[in-house]
Amino acid sequence: MEEGKKTKENGDADSPEESPEETNAVDAGVEPTDDDVDQPEATDRVQARLEEAYGKRDELQNKYLRAAAELENLRKRSAREREEITSRTRANVIGDLLPTVDAFRLGLEDAQSREEAKGVVEGFAMVMTQLETILGEHGLLPIDPAGEPFDHNLHEAVAREKSDEVEEGVVLSTVRVGYKLGGRLLRPAAVVISKGDDDEEEANEEEG
User: Fold this and answer.
1) Prediction pTM value
2) 79 against 24, higher pLDDT
């Protein structure tokens, strides 16, 4: 009996000591798994997948921003093209009306010199005013530069006349009213400009 007891005690003394974790695992009936051993590698794989997902997210976001910018540029370009088409159409229509406006104005000026047409003139003058108002609402601006310096960008000289009162290069009269539409020259004003005093010019030439 004593020998068996000693043998058991010796056997317990020779067995290696177990760690607390192993003891707990044994006590719980759970053995260590490969996942516990490969946990750092699994973390690296998850991190790599996250970085890949973030990269795809950034790529998609950049594509979205580029597409949004292209769409906005397309919208602005389409708006400009529509505005240009509208402006050209308006200019063509109003340009076609100008000869009629000229004829109406000339007829009205001639009728104003006739006493017997006074009643008719007043009515047509009102119509002319309404027509000019409507055209003005569409951006049409008349160019009537009588008394102003000649501007080759806006005026077309059709004649030059001597003037003792107006210096050379000044518009004496407007033969045909010009027009601007939307800041653009639709038709230059046809004008007569002063060539100054011929006697003064001759004197200056002789002195020279």
Assistant:
1) 0.59
2) 79
